[in-house]
Amino acid sequence: MTETRLRGHSLEVTSPGPGGFPPGDVNPSRPSLQALTVPVGVPLAPATDAEGRMRRFRALYDTHIDFVWRNLRRLGVFDSDVEDRSQEVFVVAHRRFDEFEDRGHGARAWLFQIVLRVASDARRHRRRHPEVPDGGDATERVSVEPTQPDAIVQREALSRLDAALAEIDLERRAVLVLHEIEEMTAPMIAQVLSVPINTVYSRLRVARLKLEEALARQGVEP
Questions:
Q1: What is the longest distance spanned by two Cα atoms in the chain?
Q2: C-alpha to C-alpha distance for 57 and 215, rounded to whole angstroms
Q3: Are 8 and 31 in contact (CB under 8 A)?
Q4: In angstroms, rounded to a whole number, what is the distance separating the alpha carbons of residues 133 and 79?
Q5: Hey, which end of the chain has fewer CB within 10 Å, N or C?
Q6: Angle in degrees, 0-180, between the axes of helices 50-74 and 106-128, rounded to the nearest 10
């Protein structure tokens, strides 16, 4: 398979995301596709030829790179690693693309399964290799101009949210992110994570409490 390279990522602070979280969600600018040698396409039906497969996978990448990027961050991947981990997600997606079957939940549900595994692997790697070249400061940084007061306020809110989310274990955090930020329903989340719906509700309830407690410790009203 052709090697993929995703380059040109930068982070921009955008308007507040849904779900009642503090303003300042992160949304990466569209990465340059000149270096992306893995194909991408439009409808997600099974490919009938190599060219059609290329177009379909290209559309998948164009549509969902932002989704993949922000959810890797929300699941604890350092900014300094997000580009490589995003590449890893789409390498896996390309390898399994012919297996994709939309069962009514769309490509995001399928991609999130890959994102979750990649984020989990990244966390395990970090535990085994705790030395981070930037000291972990990358998780606190967003590319903004220092002369933009609103962007700085949003950056600070994002940093507080990220710090609060970091206190929640990955399984509960995944449910919280899918429900509150990605606005997926509980039945959809149950499908994505392959868990009973009662488990979704239980994890969501605990995750919300832990998020409120973490924000309260920072002096932030949830």
A1: 56
A2: 39
A3: yes
A4: 12
A5: N
A6: 50
